[in-house]
């Protein structure tokens, strides 16, 4: 079908932390992510920035890296997380019971938590946050794997 | 109606009883927006005017605002308390992670009362307050260490603030500050001593809640407008590039840079410690307060060889800004960049206010050189530029080996009252002066400002804009300064960083409030600014600020030429008389 072939041509993208050394820890990306819902504050943010042990040492930016075979989906007991085309996962909140197994399974600690709803916050690789990084730490790139 | 209810929650903590409770105060936040406006009200409710600033009856209020966590640069926490340095109203602002962390923990304000029997630190998260034993942290040499210890023990990395005092606070040095995120400070007016008197070593607070908005589409629209003004326009360029130290060279050029206790307003070696020189040789990293894309925090690296081994080095970090470079640099005649950074580091380690410390040391140096005090008092020999001796003196202020250092720890005004030299004790309302000698409005601004800060009403900027123009009459200067101070109450009630003051005009503030559920026109806001200013100043007067006795100017400002020439005593007297009349009218305070 024509609609299907058109969508097949669009290559999936993923969010990449290209240069965490340039991060100044302003948290603009975190607030941007939450604004998509739209909400102020941080409960809805799927990206996290923290210092690596004091401001002087710089920052680490933690976000889903779009694994092609994501461990978080493998451990979800209710099937709420399903692999996404191009890597990473899609959350079906209706199925999610907020057990937190996905958060444990991710070796990067990239699954943030919506403390208001008690559910994971999953990066959908939309790239909205990249518009609010003043130093080019984040980029949206075509998935190559 | 404020769309987000959590802002209106006030957390009350009683250190004596180790208990806490929460009250919903929507009426406070809907009227005053947060920050200074709300803190003034809360302090008025909780504090007996006669309370000893270092006794259990003093109260500390910390407040954030309706924009915090919603819009960029609303990143300041406003603290209010009775100041042990001035004996009247204390108000100190700091950025770092503090404001966003308090808001994300689910509170709009925190009120701390009483005093603990043992040293404690507070851990505030998930709506609860945990009282942790801080006995082992009491007496730890460095505020850096205290931060590291708590960082390892507590949760919410990246989403928390670790506010702590150093040994200066424990020892009740009247100008001890509270350090947050190692490089930001509630520096002024002695909040650190108040915490010390309450045996409160630190507060760690964090969380990641959401903020409800009333109009989502409009919220994002206004956000983008603000973000673009901050990041893409020139409105904050100065802070984005060299930061506040960009001021050193231009202030020196116009002769407004207080040097060697303001015996001069030009420093012949200003180039050595300029923002440009430090950026070129020592700037190691730039970091940001939470939710501020400007990242004005400049951190320098001190690289130092081991004392007894070659080819072994330590690299340590210290943040620098214009005011510490003035107070611990030009004011003390220090041109050695590395030495200056080490002195700033020592002040940081002890947890003192850099500005008060520098001015106190400058007074001591001049008093020593004039023979008013001798080595019997100072133990070491202070002399302009000798940063090693000044490091030792900073330690002595905290260790208090004799009566002299005990007095110096009570502030420059107290020390000068005891030993003499009041005419060159650079204090305004007992608070040590900021780093500008730009003309009459500068010093009037310090004197009449409710915090005796240059940021209260920006007299320093007023003077700089008037260079080469006809100077207005004293009454007009006062009227203009008061108008500016009134508007700044809105900025500090919204806890906006004053560096973003050009971004947040009355029109834009009004527009930004709407999607959060508050309707206020630019005119309403200006009116509210005057109301908060009046409330705050009334509280300052109730706490003991005397419009006759405390509204004085040090003689020295009349002896050193400013960019507007010699300042006239007559002009200043007229101005202060006009202020007395106007503030009495505004506050309805008769005394």
Task: Please sum up the structure shown.
The complex is a heterodimer of chains A (145) and B (591). Chain A has 145 residues and is an alpha+beta fold. Chain A is built from 4 helices and 9 strands; from the N terminus they run H-E-H-E-E-E-H-E-E-H-E-E-E.
The level-1 CATH class of chain A: Alpha Beta
Unreliable spans of chain B: none
Helix count, DSSP H or I runs of 4 or more residues of chain B: 23
Main β-sheet description of chain A: 2 strands, antiparallel
- Strands of the widest sheet of chain B, in order across it, are 2-1-6-3-4-5
Bin the strand percentage of chain A: 15-25%
Mean pLDDT of chain B: 97
Strand arrangement within the widest β-sheet of chain A reads: 1-9
| Major sheet details of chain B | 6 strands, mixed
User: What is the name of the CATH topology of the largest domain in chain B?
Assistant: Aldehyde Ferredoxin Oxidoreductase,  A, domain 1
Low-confidence stretches of chain A: 1-6
> How much is the radius of gyration of chain A in Å?
16 Å
By DSSP (H or I, 4+ residues per run), the number of helices of chain A equals 4
CATH superfamily of the largest domain in chain B: Aldehyde ferredoxin oxidoreductase, N-terminal domain
Quaternary organization: heterodimer
Explain the overall architecture.
The complex is a heterodimer of chains A (about 140) and B (about 600). Chain A is an alpha+beta fold. Chain A has a single domain (about 20-135), classed as Alpha-Beta Plaits. Chain A is built from four helices and nine strands, in the order αβαβββαββαβββ. In chain A, strands 1-9 form a two-stranded antiparallel sheet. Chain B is about 40% helix and about 15% strand. In chain B, helix 2 crosses helix 20 and helix 2 (about 35-45) packs parallel to helix 22 (about 520-540). With about 600 residues, chain B is α+β, with helices and mostly antiparallel strands. Chain B has 23 helices and 18 strands. Chain B folds into three domains: about 5-205, Aldehyde ferredoxin oxidoreductase, N-terminal domain (Aldehyde Ferredoxin Oxidoreductase,  A, domain 1), CATH 3.60.9.10; about 240-420, Aldehyde Ferredoxin Oxidoreductase Protein, subunit A, domain 2 (Orthogonal Bundle), CATH 1.10.569; about 440-500 and about 520-585, Aldehyde Ferredoxin Oxidoreductase Protein, subunit A, domain 3. Classes of the chains: A alpha+beta (about 140), B alpha+beta (about 600). At the A-B interface, helix 2, strand 2, strand 3 and strand 7 of A face helix 3, helix 4, strand 13, helix 7 and strand 14 of B.
């Amino acid at each position: 079908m024509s609609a299907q072939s058109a969508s097949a041509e669009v290559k999936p993208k993923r969010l990449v932390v290209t240069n965490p050394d340039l991060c100044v820890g302003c948290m603009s990306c975190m607030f941007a992510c939450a604004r998509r819902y739209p909400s102020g504050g941080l409960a809805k943010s799927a990206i996290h920035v923290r210092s690596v042990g004091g401001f002087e040492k710089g920052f680490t930016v933690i976000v889903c890296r779009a694994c092609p075979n994501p461990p978080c989906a493998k451990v979800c007991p209710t099937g709420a997380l399903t692999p996404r085309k191009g890597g990473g996962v899609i959350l079906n909140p209706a199925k999610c019971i907020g057990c937190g197994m996905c958060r444990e399974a991710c070796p990067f600690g990239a699954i943030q938590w919506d403390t208001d709803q008690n559910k994971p916050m999953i990066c959908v690789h939309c790239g909205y946050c990249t518009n609010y990084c003043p130093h080019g730490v984040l980029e949206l790139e075509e998935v190559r794997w | 109606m404020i769309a987000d209810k959590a802002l209106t929650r006030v957390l009350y903590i009683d250190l004596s009883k180790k208990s806490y409770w929460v009250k919903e105060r929507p009426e406070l936040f809907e009227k005053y927006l947060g920050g200074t406006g709300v803190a003034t009200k809360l302090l008025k409710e909780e504090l007996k005017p006669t309370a000893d600033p270092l006794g259990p009856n003093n109260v500390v209020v910390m407040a954030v605002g309706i924009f915090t966590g919603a819009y960029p640069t609303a990143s300041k926490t406003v603290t209010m308390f009775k100041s042990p340095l001035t004996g009247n109203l204390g108000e100190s602002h700091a950025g770092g992670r503090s404001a966003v962390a308090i808001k994300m923990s689910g509170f709009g304000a925190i009120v701390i009362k009483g005093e603990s029997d043992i040293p404690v630190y507070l851990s505030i998260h998930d709506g609860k307050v945990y009282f942790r034993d801080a006995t082992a942290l009491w007496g730890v040499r460095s505020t850096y260490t205290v931060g590291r210890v708590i960082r390892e023990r507590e949760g919410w990395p990246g989403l928390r603030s670790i506010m702590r005092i150093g040994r200066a606070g424990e020892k009740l040095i009247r100008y001890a500050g509270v350090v947050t995120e190692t490089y930001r400070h509630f520096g002024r007016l002695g909040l650190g001593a108040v915490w010390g008197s309450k045996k409160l070593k630190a507060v760690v607070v964090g969380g990641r809640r959401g903020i409800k908005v009333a109009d989502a589409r409009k919220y994002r629209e206004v956000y983008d407008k603000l973000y673009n003004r901050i990041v893409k326009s020139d409105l904050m360029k100065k802070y984005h590039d060299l930061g506040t130290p960009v001021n050193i060279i231009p202030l020196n050029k116009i002769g407004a840079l207080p040097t060697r206790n303001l015996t001069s307003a030009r420093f012949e070696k200003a180039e050595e410690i300029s923002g440009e020189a430090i950026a070129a040789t020592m700037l190691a990293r730039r970091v940001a307060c939470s939710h501020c894309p400007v990242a004005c925090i400049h951190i320098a690296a001190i690289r130092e060889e081991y004392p007894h081994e070659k080819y072994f080095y330590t690299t340590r970090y210290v943040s620098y800004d214009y005011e510490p470079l003035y107070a611990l640099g030009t004011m003390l005649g220090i041109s050695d960049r590395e030495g200056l950074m080490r002195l700033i580091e020592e002040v940081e380690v002890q947890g003192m206010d850099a500005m008060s410390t520098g001015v106190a040391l400058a007074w001591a140096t001049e008093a020593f050189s004039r023979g008013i005090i001798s080595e019997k008092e100072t133990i070491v020999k202070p002399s302009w530029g000798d940063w090693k001796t000044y490091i030792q003196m900073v330690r002595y202020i905290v260790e208090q080996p004799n009566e002299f250092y005990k007095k110096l720890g009570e502030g420059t005004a107290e020390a000068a009252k005891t030993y003499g030299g009041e005419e060159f004790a650079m204090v305004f309302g007992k608070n040590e002066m900021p780093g500008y000698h730009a003309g009459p409005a500068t010093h009037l601004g310090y004197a009449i400002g409710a915090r005796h800060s240059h940021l209260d009403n920006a007299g320093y900027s007023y003077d700089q804009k008037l260079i080469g123009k006809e100077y207005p009459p004293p009454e007009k200067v006062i009227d203009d300064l008061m108008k500016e101070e009134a508007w700044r109450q809105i900025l500090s009630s919204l806890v906006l960083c004053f560096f973003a003051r050009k971004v947040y005009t009355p029109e834009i503030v009004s527009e930004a409030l709407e999607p959060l559920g508050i309707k206020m026109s630019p005119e309403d806001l200006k009116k509210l600014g005057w109301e908060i200013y009046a409330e705050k100043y009334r509280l300052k007067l109730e706490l003991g600020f005397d419009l006759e006795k405390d509204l004085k100017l040090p003689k020295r400002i009349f002896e050193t030429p400013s960019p507007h020439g010699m300042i006239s005593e007559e002009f200043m007297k007229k101005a202060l008389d006009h202020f007395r009349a106007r503030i009495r009218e505004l506050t309805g305070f008769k005394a």
